[in-house]
């Protein structure tokens, strides 16, 4: 008999003897045995895949439902620790990496918060960053209104081939008589002055309130003249409604966003709507109704319409409303944890998806911008995602995990990077075409 077999036989005999000895101990001693102590402890609450309904055949696929609120609720008596979550650890996994430093094609970023573009120096700093990372053009969503917008537009004239400035929607005064007509008139003035679209933030739906305290939603009749004015001038409405689905769940260790570092300070409930906000369903119902009521208005829905968590709902939304497009900012962390699925989804809906980052001049090229190129262009695996939110110690607040690339085909990349956006911003076409030609010439 081989030596290793003898050792194995001996171990089995010893283990069996030990088990027999423990089982024969008196009750008082059995309670002191290590194995018994282990059995006395409560089993950890480990997440497992829910079982498929009986109607789903073996080998078939189904989509499990979202957790119910009670499943995510923290244990009774649990309190926020008051300690921040550290940055992600360094990975010890050695994998191939694509050497990538700029976008494969000059991208048009439809979601940038380029605040403070009121001087030549501010514009020059932004253009230098764009040139470094291969960004063809951007949409600045922080143009503002009134005199602020006028200053941004005036200083931006020499850069209008690279920076499209949008008027920024404001619900201030919406409960006052005549607000609808007043703001629609400001939109018209802005479009005539050079604003190429309008940005609407999540304050609509989650912030602005009626006199009775209820939240004003996107299908409110007072907004009809606003959406109609955008259609009249054929300007896109870049609209951010709702928020990450985890923000509608209780704060606690079972919430992915908490685990990533949000809400760790005692009493912090910033942008968590479980206790004080409207339900996610209310906001989504209003989004759909807004699109239905205004078929001639072109809406670009930020963050995949906040439906990155339920691609079936996202597909239904796009199939139902031809006036709806989406952009991918602040969703790369979720695209990259299911890269094969989302690759097929983006290929199928390649004509409806725009590139976006939710970035700003303050974000680092290697930490934020270039990971977008890696995620979309390569099949690299297990790398840091471009976190749209960072906690004080650097944890990626929208997902404490690594991602893998989607490796999109060039034809799809071109559509997402710039072609789809140019449908909304035809004035940027000549600039993008010049940059494409320059790259082609440089490659010879």
Automatic annotation (TrEMBL):
Keywords: Hydrolase, Lyase, Signal
Cleavable signal peptide: 1-31
Organism the protein comes from: Luteitalea pratensis
GO cellular component: cytoplasm
Membrane-spanning parts: none
Domain Amidohydrolase-related as annotated: residue spans: 123-425
Pfam (any one): Amidohydro_2
Domain of life: Bacteria
Name of the featured protein: Putative metal-dependent hydrolase of the TIM-barrel fold protein
Gene3D superfamilies with a match to the protein in the record: Metal-dependent hydrolases
Any GO molecular function: carboxy-lyase activity
Example GO biological process: secondary metabolic process
